[in-house]
Sequence to fold (463 residues):
Amino acid sequence: MSDALIVLHTAIAIIAIVLLIVVAKVDPLISLVIGTLYLGVAAGLGFGNTIGTLVQGFADIMAEVGLLIGFGVLMGTLLTAMGALQKLVELLLRILGPQRLPYAFSAALSSIFPAIYVDVQLVLASPLARSAAPRMGRNGLAMMGGTLTAGILVGYVFVVPGLGTVAIAGLLNVPLGTMLIYGTLLGPPTAVLTTFIYSRVLKYGLWNESKDEAPLRKMQQGNPAVAEEARQASSAETERQTGQTSPALYVSLLPILVALLLIAFGAVSKAAGLESPVIAFLGDPVFALFLALLGAYLLAWRTLSKEQVGQAMHKGFNESGQILLMTGIGGSLGAVIGETGLGKILGGFFSAEAGMPDLLAILLAWLIAAVLHLAIGSISVAAITAAGILVPILSSLEVPTVVFGLAIGSGALFALQVNSNFFWMFHTLLGLTTEGTFKALTLVTVLASVVSLLLILALSLVV
Fold:
């Protein structure tokens, strides 16, 4: 099959999925499977290979993030049942106020907590965002959703030890120390500026609670007074039934802090060459989150009744099942797209380009990564593939390689949408409709990608 037809069928599949979900109101799971099957058969994989790739893609993504999602969701439900996240929100609001909270949150996520797995950050931070939303006033859930997007994903592609950042640095032979300096200078400003621009857009009526928030979320986030009454009633009921007060805030948050520190410790140790079986074990995200889950479980047993602990665990199992299924199908679509050879096709379009002006080269790096992300649905895969495609032209450029690498990361951030498993995790964990997820996630990644590109172009003129 010709390259043009493969590109055409990929575009048709992605557009069809979006139209089925948004226009025809077909369930996202059904839409994703239909689009995946169409692409595999139409692109020439054959019926058997299409099903095999779909199943393998599901298995691969589950092997990568399945336990992380399960452990993280269970820990989140236990901490929520103990009131830990509500206490943290109240503390942040007292210190910062509702107007400053999104900016501080996005800056912290992008600079202090860039984890190897963005899925881990999303699982840990989404309950906090949901808890803060009712206190933010109108469009609170929209604002906190956009804040999560900007903070987590900007840190992922620009700030060490984010996987996208580390992968780009390794492929382009950029020292991690150099990448850390440039990425830290670029990441937090991009996150904060994106949050600011998104907040302005929301003021012009972008968000529609009745269409963008799932029904269960609308009852709480849509009415701050109701949410506050429910929170107070829940807290009072918890203390009445258990006869105990919840643990101090710093104690409640220890499971999350320990998990993040262990993950960061493992990533930094590996980057510094300090590798050993013990370090690898302690820094493994699966172990780190299980340890955090165990800590939250023990705290819950000391704070709540047996019935409340059981209810929290049951809720966590129900939520994680839905998330895992949607995430796995997103991985299936990405696997089928990868099997079509789209990355090699795009590489053939651009690999002959050399000797071009530096600014044009930066724009080209951004464009290739952006197109790959739109097609493949994985930020890290798009960044890695784009870096591999563009390595041959580096010798002809005068712009520092680190700036070129940042441009790849910026492009890979562009327009995260339905063929990404992160999209469906975000959709479920934040309690949004598909339309709402496009606004709080896809639109925000477009803004962050463009904002960071402008900053990178400016940076290239002075370094």
Remarks:
- Residues 217-243 have pLDDT under 50 and may be disordered.
